[in-house]
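note to self — DONT lose this again. spent like an hour looking for the file last time. sequence + predicted structure for the chain T wanted, 139 res
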Amino acid sequence: MAIYELRCGGGHRFEVIQSFAAPLPDCPECGAATGKVPSRFGIGGSAGTPPRAEMMPQTWRGTYGGDREYVTHLRRTAEARRDLEERHPELAGDRRPIIAHEGRYENAPLRAGDQTPVHTPKNAAGRTHTHGSAGEGGS
């Protein structure tokens, strides 16, 4: 059995379920002869990108106390994200390790390979000692 979309000369459209060999029925609205219309196609499912590691639960509580099914789902989601990032590295973001993330680096973490800011009296946050550098009152 197949689903056919039919149309009559009067413009009425309808669907029927019938075998391939059966004759096409007349239009139920006006009784006119009908013909097959190319059917619209449907795409099942949906696509989306798996969440980044930062978006995954980071605590025991976040995994519903280590619920086995939920943890299995998280593992599969993480594997799907890893596979996606291997195929499309531009989605991976900055993968360098974070060296410092507290204090002045709280809003912009220092990563491996980043240049550290040069400390000058202007950005020394009120600290004026120089650890004995020459010309600054040292001996």
